[in-house]
Fold each of these.
Amino acid sequence: MLVEVVQAVVTGLLIGLTFAVLAVGFSLIWGTTGVVNIAHSAFAVLAAFLSLVASRQWGLDPIAALVGLVPLFFILGVVLHEVLIKVAARRTKELGLASMIFTFGLASFMENGMAYVWGPGPRVLNTAYTGAAVHLLGISIPLTHAYGALLGLATIGLLYGFLYHTFPGKAVRAVWQQRDGAALCGIPLHRVTALTYGVSIASASVAGVAMALIYSFTPATYMVWLVNVFLIVIVGGVGSLLGAAAAGLIVGLVSSLSVLVMPFVWTNLALFGLLILVLLVRPSGLLKR
Amino acid sequence: MVNRPRDWVYVFGILLALGLLPLAQPSEYVLSFLYFLFSYAAMAVAWNVLGGFGGYLSFGHVTFFGTGAYVTGLMLVHWGWSPLITAPLGGLAAALLALVIGYPTLRLRGPYFTVVTVVTVLIAKIVVLNVPLTGAAMGLWMPFPPWDPFTSRVIFYEAVLVLLLAALLMARWVQHAKFGFGLRVIREDEDAAAAIGVPAFRLKLGALLLSAFVCGMVGAVHGYDRSYLHPDFMFDLHPSIMMVLMALFGGRDHWLGPLVGAVAVMITDELLTVYVGTEAARMLFGLLLIIVVLFLPEGVISLRLPKKPPRAAAAGEGVSSP
């Protein structure tokens, strides 16, 4: 029993890290610009498909493919900001709700575009190390989980360095904390928010590859990932990087530990219950200062 | 909003005339297309009471649709009661569920409420998939309606037409009653509404119950028409999205908006699906959603209704010109 619990804790933490990296970008955009970007996880699924294409066509390892994917998705993020978000911010009164609708339109556009190109069926990312595992003190760690979690950890570490130790990163945090105040201090809001979108969508591409290492995916998978992202962001507090990281670990633990005490089909119910409970008790996030 | 007292005469006149359509022996295709149009329109009109007037965006109304279908379906299977008669009970069950869901969650605002509505659909799907009573993953088989195909198309057509008329009358009443004014004040600024004595929570809950009731009745009729219920399509997010799209596309500030939106969206959807395929059609809908929110936030109907009453517009210009 003890071994099973330890195994569940380890798996939960590894999965939690990959979910956390998917959530941080979403949280950053929501916090700094008030946009609830439903299409965030659709970008992650797109990255998963592109890494699949790279490995099928050129035999590239998905993690190596990130060298191309991250800059590409950074540009996509900036384009998203320049084309859609700026117009929306100018034209709509309630950006939170309006953005949920039009980014949903974008996500549905992307989902069906991917289904059109790659078909709606489930895909699996096969790598040289798929199926291999490290055995340690009676527990086994699949290498895909380990690499996914390492990618997550590295990305969160880089984002932490960026947000807390570089000037542009501090500007992003300033805009999150007090938009008008930041503008008064001479921070160029447009450039900072464009940068936020670039960083956020780039992190979504890493998350997409990390998730694809662990799970199979279809164009419609973005909805499943999105629910987890919402859960993490709401538990961790909107806009908070470390909150999202901690909440990702909590969510991973809850989902892997609940398998031990209840049938597999009900585990999602436990997560949804947690989400509603947190919303009702502390809508601003459990971990927010 | 300018009052056009004759609009509703036209609308109800056309709908009543459509009620006589089966006498002309139209093809089953036409009846079936209009049947889908009317059932979506009824739900969009009902959705708009909370989502449009009240500004509480719900992607969860398909839960009420599915609840109505399952409750009346179970009554048919176990007791032999026809869903066409028990439809109001299905609506009541949906409203009851709306009360259970809405009582705690309507305190949430903006995106938080919307997230919860999405999650309720996912929860409902898991529960129905795993409870033996509802047939679980096998689905629920009902006895077929005892009529020949054409008669049964006519009966279901008339049933949803009646529901659409009822939904329109309800939405029109809400819009012109104190209820509707209260809801719109809540949409503009909920704290200010509460401060001037609008019972915000009661109005929101009332709007949710009304719209859930209509969706439950439509679900009851639709479930009987299919004769087979499965959570994969009775608790699918897509119909919810269609309701929202129709209401926003038509115009959420007027009881007629969702009907206009439903007609436009259903005809476009049918043409696109037939001529370019489902995926391309849904891609175009995604783009349409973006365009509507950004460039036509008050919907198509705002093209016909003057934006401001002439006098207020003139006064507004007077103020803004130096």
Note: The first strand of chain B starts at residue 140 and ends at 141.
Amino acid sequence: MKPRTTPRAVIESAQSMIRMLLAAAAFALLPLFGMANTAAPLAADPVLERRLMTLAGELRCLVCQNQTLAESNAELAVDLRNEIREQMQRGATDQDVIAYLVARYGDFVLYRPPLKASTLLLWSGPGLLLLAGIGFLARTLVRRRAYGVRAPLSPEAHARARELLGAGTVEDPS
Amino acid sequence: MIPELGHFALILAFALAVAQSIFPLIGAARGDPVLMRVGATTAVGQFLFVLLAFAALVYGFVVNDFSVHYTASNSNTTLPLQYRIAATWGGHEGSALLWTLVLAGWAAAITRFSRHLPQDFVARVLGVMGLVSIGFLAFLLFTSNPFERLFPTPPDGRSLNPLLQDVGMVLHPPFLYLGYVGFSVVFAFALAALLGGRLDAAWARWSRPWTTLAWVFLTLGVALGSFWAYYELGWGGWWFWDPVENASFIPWLVGTALIHSLAVTERRGAFKGWTLLLAIFTFSLSLVGMFLVRSGVLTSVHAFATDPLRGTFVLVFLGIVVGGALLLFASRAHRIGLGGSFDLVSRESMLLLNNVMLTVAAGSVLLGTLYPLVLDALGAGKISVGPPYFDTVFIPLMVPAMFLIGVGPMARWKKATLPDLATRLRWAFAAGVVTALLVPFAMGAWKTSVSLAILLAAWIAASSIAGLVERLRQSRCPGVLGKFADIPRNYYGMLLAHIGVAVFIAGATLVKGYETEKDVRMSVGNTIEVGGYDFRLDRLSQVKGPNYTAVRGDVSVTRNGRAVTTMYPEKRTYDNQKNPMTEAAIDWGFVRDLYVAFGEPLDPKTWAVRIYHKPFVELIWVGWLLMSLGGLLAVFDRRYRVTANKPQTAPVPSPLLLDSGTAGAR
């Protein structure tokens, strides 16, 4: 990775260092408060871990049947999570991590496929289907209405229907 | 000897299926009652022979007959009896046999419960089902024979995937198949209607209970699958948009559209063509699901290419079924009438919109499921389409459909007006808004997305109740109980199913919005607080199961110092498997589940442990259960039985595909 010197990166890495220091301090001070029995979080930095897991939830575990990187305990998944964690600790943004993974494993690693020529139909498909559906709906409704106007029930037919039904009122059958 | 009997029974069943598909169809075309009657006899006979074959296969599993290839590769002697029986459908050949058995069972049920229907119609239905059966039996006999022998006979068999050794696996596939294959009935009804030229309100009424029953089974099957994933897979989710899940969810969506469209066809005679298309597509998509799961394309397109026989068979079969059905439809479509007219705002138009949304949603899920396969097959690169895609696409499509659940049942047939609807629904909407504002506060944190989803759920529930109140008021029966009894069962069924949707939305939203997850390292004596509960690891021990060894933790749970329960999460290593499996411990509760799962050991005395507090997660499955109960209630509506008990004395005015504006007004 290229060394990053943007102000944002500096701030981010400083923040994560402060978080680590605080976590370490909290860990060291725990016995003083008589809380030695509280189970320690698996991650040194829960905030970063949350960010990691959110991101890993959108990534594919490459050796599993169909599991996200967040869910899997396969060796490769654990290694990759460690790799991402290290990169995040060094101040990498989510985009940096994704770019790194795509460069290594291709788009296959992304559960949210990027928008490009080959996925154009995938992302536009539902919209096109919806348009077709609404078109179908509009056509049907218009035809129905025209059909209803074209063939109104004559008073005689209405009377006959009433007679056939044998009752004065037509109940709403629902 | 027994396996050969089973094989022979399958061959006989195949011969009967051929007879079942030829003679009744010819008989119906010629009006020959003797030939038509062959349908019922052969259907029952076929069912008995397939049942015999299935029993033979189960027997092989019970007595550990490893001279049969399929038994040897899916079972072993250490497996407990109930899982040996379930292992019968744990692999490919056995699932295909179960599938065939279910199909024959549905056909036999038609001969039993459709005696009141016109003879030529039943003959055509059975003929079509016989044609489908030929496909299934040929698939079994020519590509997936479960009775193939293995020589030399191994002393013991291979193990069933430990994930499948579970009561969920015993129940999930049979229910799923009952649903999938159950849609073959309405498919056959549709083709019989097209062949015979009879497509009226009576046709829709005959189809409805069968379709709804199939839908009930599929609903239960999907729900069981989701429930099983939740407690067995060990990472606390309940839906993963996995292609295998989608394969069952797509027919469910289209089937849901179908039962709504059938209601319109029965009541108003409208949507006939659309209903037929949906009937064809629901069953076809069930077959697509079978192709996806059974051909191996999901693991890899190339796996399919190296062993293409089964996949090709299903694909060709699918082509014949869909192509043939659509061809028949196209040749008769011009004779299908429009049915009753209706206005821009009416119950019909809303049900049509519901159908459009459900179909578009199903199409989108299908697109996302197939897209990576097609891309890979074309050599255009490997991509993954997962939960982020489906959530983005599916939820916005579903929200309008769910909103309509509140309005549709209140709208009048033929012509409704928006001001009238607004007046009748204002209290339901107000109740929805109040609930949506209160619930996030009751849960302890404001979340806009939660509030909006709760608005939707409360709106559905409140408008359902408003509809019920209105019906009770309109009832002319004396007494409160009389008024309740006056309302038909299928109305209660609809209410229950719709409230089920509301309950499901509430569960899915609350657990997503308010669950707490903690990943900690625990050794004996450690405690951790999650969601207001204190978890303490009291003991770690080795336990030995029938075919596994496990590390088990005793985790005692207290709340404000009071004992709540003790949970026993396990990490199991099955005898024939290398990778240890997580057996999560779950403390079930209506308002929350507690979920403790072991990760990996960090050192001999310390484990990585994942603990969840999941508020209201069970509402998800309560909702699905309510939907299926609602469907079941509708199946047993009185009017289906009245027609069933009364032989057809009064001639139904039979408007043979007649374009009649009054077809629906009974």
Note: The beta strands of chain B are 516-522, 527-530, 533-544, 548-559, 562-567, 570-574, 581-583, 585-587, 592-603, 606-615.
Amino acid sequence: MANSKLKTFVNGFLRENPLLVLNIGLCSSLGVTTSIFNGLGMGVGMTFVLVMSEIVISIFRKLIPSAIRLPVFITVIAAFTTIVQLVLNAYVESLYNALGVFIPLIVVNCIIMGRVEAFASKNKVGDSILDGLGMGIGYTIVLVAISLIRELLGGGTLFAGTALKVDVIPEAFRIGIFNSAPGGFLVFGILAACLQAWKQYQKNKADQAEIAAMKETEKPSETTEGGDK
Amino acid sequence: METIKLFIKSALIDNVVFIQYLAICPFIGMTNDTEKATGMGLATTFVIMLATAVTWPLYKLVMVPLGLEFLQTLFFILVIASLVQLVEFFLKKMSPGLYNAMGVYLALITTNCAVLGITINCISKNYNYVQSLVYAFGSAMGFLISMVIMSGVRSRVKTANIPKAFAGTPILYVCASLLSLAFLGFKGLIK
């Protein structure tokens, strides 16, 4: 039981990572990741909306008629997004300005809609919280990874916008393209490729172990086709 | 002249997908065949125009006088969702042929960031009604262009010899990155 709970939680980190594997909710992940501060801020905001929406919808899952569930979901998500928007505007003005249109766009982020529809509307509150947290953390990890690479190579700094700002690369050696639009796509593509390579490596290892086990029991080994899309 | 400038700016220089990173989900998910991509692009164009035409007056004439600006996100997404539903009903009744062609895409458009993003941008950039409509149309055309280009690129990618790790979606982001680099070249078009 505890094991399956842990699995629900960890699932979103890498194996079912919403961004790199499921390819949903991409817009904000590319749009805001020009600095670690922005990436982390977006990740936290998004996780908050995701967890809160999953909690509310999971509590009321038996009361919501299935015919009008989508408008209900949207309203709940939009309410929490507005809360994030107002809080950021009031307390972290610089982040609010940097994220711009991507804060209201949390509403239409497919990750939230997807998790609410696929998970929270069918599972208990506790599981939904774990699922939301796991997915949110997976999202945040990727956001921070992308923004780390982009900020380092493009801007030459780390943690710009906070008190911890460090200049790493001198101005003459910065690669500006990473800070502008093409760099976002490129970094994301390479990260997705890395994850895919890692998964293939794991799969090959598992396959080989399976074949070795089969040989030991002296059964005819079946070669499995690689499940490429 | 200003209108034409705004149109070119929103369609090419500030391209929704390649420069502003909006609507990447359909851009990756729906471009595996040109016909589908065009259908999605046209349906989205229609909804974007309709949504902008409704949300701008709603914001300026109803929400501002009542002091409800902070509910912008909630109102806009509800307006867009109900508009999409209305269009769906309308098409089903009036033109089943068009419904069959566009129906599949309509449901997805509600969660298309470009629609909400463009309506919010019109307000935050302080455009007047005509400017908003031109901006929306330009952006929608930009979306359509990028969908069609990407579907063309994908048909070539399918037959190419790709490193194993990049097979599937990762290569698409690299393609998008190169296309985005090309679109960055439009930057000098208008001062």
Note: Confidence is low (pLDDT under 50) at residues 224-229 of chain A.
